[in-house]
């Protein structure tokens, strides 16, 4: 089952997306999100987020901004941020220049209206990854930055990652946050993720690649994906 999902590399089914969003809302409201993610990633999420936050300038669209914590860190660096998340109203995001409740697949902005669009650990939760990337590139003048967990290209590395995500990561997150069950949804979302080869095909470049690119930061040029994004198959 997971192999078939991996080969599709498509967006999440609507029912899984709804479950994930519900769990994310609970994690943000309880304050468990950051501690759990730091534990699961052995601190690499914080390491990579800090480097991503140092990249953009001007007007930045943060897609899947959650409770706005990292958007506020960007604003503290002098960056104007649009915090966009389907949970924005539920989470009561404050302290950011602009807050919009929406999804990546339907960005309510004119083409080229922001300098950068970034998604930090939200790309894997897109309903339609091709459309979401296309929209992020459409509204950006300079670049799109993606930080997330990806499927390694080799089968042994992929299976090892899935084992870690299924067994070890939820245990670490529970120990760190005291919240047991929500972390189990990470594996189903990972099963719909592509490899980083996607970004190479889209003329992007990798800035960071950790553990066979299971964690990676990719930068894509601004502009429409055209024919490259018309297919929902990613490998």
UniProtKB/TrEMBL annotation:
Molecular functions per Gene Ontology: S-adenosylmethionine-dependent methyltransferase activity
Spans through the membrane: 159-176, 206-227
Top-level division of the source organism's lineage: Archaea
Keyword annotations of the record: Membrane, Methyltransferase, Transferase, Transmembrane, Transmembrane helix
Short name of any one Pfam family annotated for the protein: Methyltransf_11
GO-annotated biological processes: methylation
Methyltransferase type domain segment(s): 61-142
Protein name: Methyltransferase domain-containing protein
Record organism: Thermofilum pendens
Source organism phylogeny: Archaea, Thermoproteota, Thermoprotei, Thermofilales, Thermofilaceae
């Amino acid at each position: 089952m997971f192999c078939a999902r991996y080969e599709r590399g498509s967006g999440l089914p609507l029912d899984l997306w709804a479950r994930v969003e519900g769990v994310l809302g609970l994690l943000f409201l309880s304050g468990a999100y950051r501690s759990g993610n730091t534990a699961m990633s052995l601190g690499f999420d914080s390491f990579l987020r800090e480097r991503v936050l140092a990249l953009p300038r001007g007007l930045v669209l943060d897609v899947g901004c959650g409770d706005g914590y990292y958007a506020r860190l960007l604003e503290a660096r002098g960056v104007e941020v649009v915090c966009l998340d389907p949970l924005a109203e539920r989470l009561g995001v404050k302290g950011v220049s602009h807050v919009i409740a929406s999804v990546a697949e339907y960005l309510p902005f004119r083409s080229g209206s922001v300098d950068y669009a970034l998604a930090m650990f939200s790309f894997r939760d897109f309903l339609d990854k091709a459309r979401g990337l296309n929209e992020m590139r459409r509204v950006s003048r300079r670049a799109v930055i993606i930080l997330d967990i990806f499927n390694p290209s080799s089968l042994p590395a992929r299976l090892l990652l899935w084992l870690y995500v299924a067994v070890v990561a939820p245990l670490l997150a529970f120990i760190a946050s005291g919240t047991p069950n929500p972390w189990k949804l990470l594996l189903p979302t990972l099963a719909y993720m592509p490899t980083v080869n996607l970004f190479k095909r889209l003329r992007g470049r990798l800035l960071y690649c950790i553990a066979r690119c299971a964690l990676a930061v990719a930068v894509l040029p601004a502009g429409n994906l055209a024919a490259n994004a018309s297919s929902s198959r990613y490998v």
